[in-house]
Design goal:
9 helices; alpha/beta; 10-stranded mixed sheet; 20 strands; globular
Length: about 450
C-alpha cells in the first residue's frame, strides 16, 4: 500500500467515525479534526526521521488494518487469553477491554472510596464529556509523530480514572486490554488518569493478544500537588502484533510518580514515556525491562523534563537481547534554566546473548541550569566469564549457570514491583521466557 493509499484509507475511516459520532460535543470533534489534520500533514515516521531512524514502521504504514470503532471486531476474546493475563491472588478492580471496547461482563469493580471514578471512556463521552474536557490531551507536550495524533483522532474507548482530593485507593486498579481476531485490525485505546491533591493509587496496565493486529495506545497521567501514583505496565502482545504506546505524565508540586514497564511481546514494539516535572519537590521514577528475541524489535524512548527546581528523577532500563533481536533506547533529560537543585540519574544496561543481537542506545542530557546533579550512562555486555567460572566451579551446569545470571540481571527490575502477586507472576513468566543457553 502506497503512502497515498494509506492516507486515503485512514481518511475514509475517519469520515466514517465522524458520521457515527455526530452527537459528540464540539470541543471533542474539533480535537479529533485537528489531530487528524496533523496526522495527514505528518504521516507515519520513516527511518529518515531522527526519532525513528532505527525503527522502521513500514509494516504498520503499509498495512490495511480494519477499524474497531463501529463494532466490527466485537467478538469475545478466548477465555484462555483472559486467564493468561489475570494475576492470581491480586485483590484489585479489573477493567477489561476486548478488541478496544469495554467489556462489562468480563470486568469486576470492587468497592472504591467515595468520589473515585473508574469508567470507560466511551461511557464518559456519551454521558458527561465535560468531566474530562479540561484534561484530555491538554497536558501532552511531546507527541510521537503520526501515532499520537492518530490515537487522538480515533480513540473511542479506554479507561478514565478520577481521584478526588485526599482519596486513597488501597487496592490496585487493573486495566486489561486484550486483542484477538482473524483479520488484521487496529485499536487505539486511551487511558486518562487525573489524581487530585494528596490522592494515592496503584494502577496496572496489561496488554496481550493473539494473532496479527496493531495497538496504538496513549496513556495520560495528570497528578496534582502531593499525589502519589504507582504505575505498572505489562506488555505481552502477540509476537505477530505491532504495539505502539506513549505515556504522558504531568506532575505538580511535591507529587510522587513511579512507573515500571515490563516489555515481553510484540513483533514491533515502541514505548515512549514523557514526564514533565512542573512543580517543586517532585520525585519521578521510570524503570523498565525489555526482552527481545527472534527478529523482534523493541524501541524505548523516554523524556524527563525538569521544568522547576528541587526535583528528583531516577531512571533504570534493562534489556536482554537474544538471537537476532534488536533494541533501541533513547533517554533524554531536560533541565530548564529555572530548575536549580535538580537531581537526575539515568542508566541503560543491556545484556547481549547472541553475536547477532544489536542495540542502539543514546542517553542524552540537556542542562540549562548551573546548580544541578545529573548523571547518565549506558553499559552493554555479555555474561561475565568470571561469574560463569565461579558457578561452574561449584558444580552448576552451563545452561543452569547462564539461566541464573540472566535471571539475576532481570530480577533487579522485577523486584522493584511493589504489588506482590504481580511480581510473583512476572517472575514465573520470566523464568519461562529467559533462554537456558546463551
Amino acid at each position: 500500500m502506497t503512502v497515498a493509499e494509506a492516507q486515503d484509507l485512514y481518511s475514509s475511516q475517519f469520515d466514517r467515525l465522524q458520521a457515527l459520532r455526530q452527537t459528540e460535543p464540539a470541543w471533542l470533534r474539533e480535537l479529533r479534526v485537528s489531530a487528524f489534520d496533523q496526522f495527514r500533514r505528518e504521516g507515519f515516521p520513516t527511518i529518515r526521521d531522527e526519532e525513528f531512524r532505527f525503527t522502521p514502521v513500514a509494516g504498520i504504514a503499509n498495512r490495511a488494518f480494519e477499524p474497531t470503532f463501529d463494532g466490527a471486531r466485537s467478538e469475545p476474546v478466548a477465555a484462555d487469553l483472559r486467564a493468561q493475563v489475570l494475576v492470581p491472588g491480586l485483590q484489585a478492580s479489573e477493567v477489561l477491554f476486548a478488541n478496544g471496547r469495554y467489556s462489562p461482563e468480563l470486568s469486576s469493580l470492587r468497592t472504591l472510596p467515595k468520589g473515585v471514578r473508574v469508567e470507560s471512556l466511551a461511557h464518559v463521552l456519551a454521558t458527561e464529556p465535560e468531566l474530562i474536557e479540561p484534561y484530555l490531551h491538554r497536558f501532552i507536550k511531546f507527541e510521537m509523530q503520526g501515532f499520537t495524533p492518530l490515537n487522538t483522532a480515533f480513540a473511542v474507548d479506554g479507561a478514565v480514572i478520577i481521584l478526588p482530593d485526599n482519596a486513597v485507593v488501597a487496592e490496585p486498579l487493573h486495566l486489561v486490554f486484550l486483542s484477538q481476531g482473524a483479520a488484521p485490525f487496529a485499536t487505539h485505546p486511551r487511558v486518562l488518569v487525573v489524581a487530585g491533591r494528596q490522592s494515592q493509587a496503584t494502577i496496572v496496565e496489561t496488554y496481550a493478544g493473539v494473532g496479527e493486529y496493531f495497538t496504538n495506545a496513549v496513556t495520560e497521567f495528570i497528578a496534582a500537588e502531593g499525589s502519589h501514583i504507582d504505575h505498572y505496565r505489562v506488555q505481552r502482545e502477540s509476537l505477530s502484533a505491532s504495539h505502539i504506546s506513549s505515556m504522558h505524565v504531568h506532575l505538580d508540586r511535591a507529587a510522587t510518580f513511579s512507573s515500571h514497564a515490563i516489555i515481553l511481546g510484540g513483533g514491533l514494539a515502541r514505548n515512549d514515556v514523557n514526564a514533565v516535572l512542573d512543580g517543586e519537590g517532585i520525585n519521578c521514577t521510570l524503570n523498565g525491562l525489555y526482552l527481545v528475541d527472534g527478529k523482534r524489535l523493541v524501541d524505548t524512548h523516554t523524556t524527563i523534563d525538569h521544568a522547576k527546581p528541587h526535583c528528583e528523577s531516577h531512571e533504570l532500563y534493562k534489556g536482554i537481547l537474544d538471537q537476532q533481536g534488536r533494541g533501541v533506547f533513547n533517554g533524554k533529560i531536560f533541565v530548564r534554566q529555572d530548575a536549580q537543585k535538580t537531581d537526575a540519574k539515568q542508566t541503560n544496561k543491556v545484556l547481549l546473548l547472541s553475536d547477532e543481537a544489536t542495540i542502539n542506545t543514546k542517553p542524552q542530557l540537556e542542562i540549562f541550569a548551573d546548580d544541578v546533579k545529573c548523571t547518565h550512562g549506558a553499559t552493554i555486555g555479555q555474561l561475565s566469564a568470571e561469574q560463569m567460572f565461579y558457578l561452574r566451579a561449584r558444580g552448576i551446569g552451563k545452561a543452569e549457570a547462564q539461566a541464573i545470571l540472566i535471571h539475576a540481571f532481570a530480577s533487579d527490575i522485577v523486584e522493584r514491583i511493589q504489588v506482590e502477586p504481580l511480581r510473583d507472576q512476572l517472575e514465573q513468566v520470566l523464568l519461562s521466557r529467559l533462554p537456558l543457553e546463551a
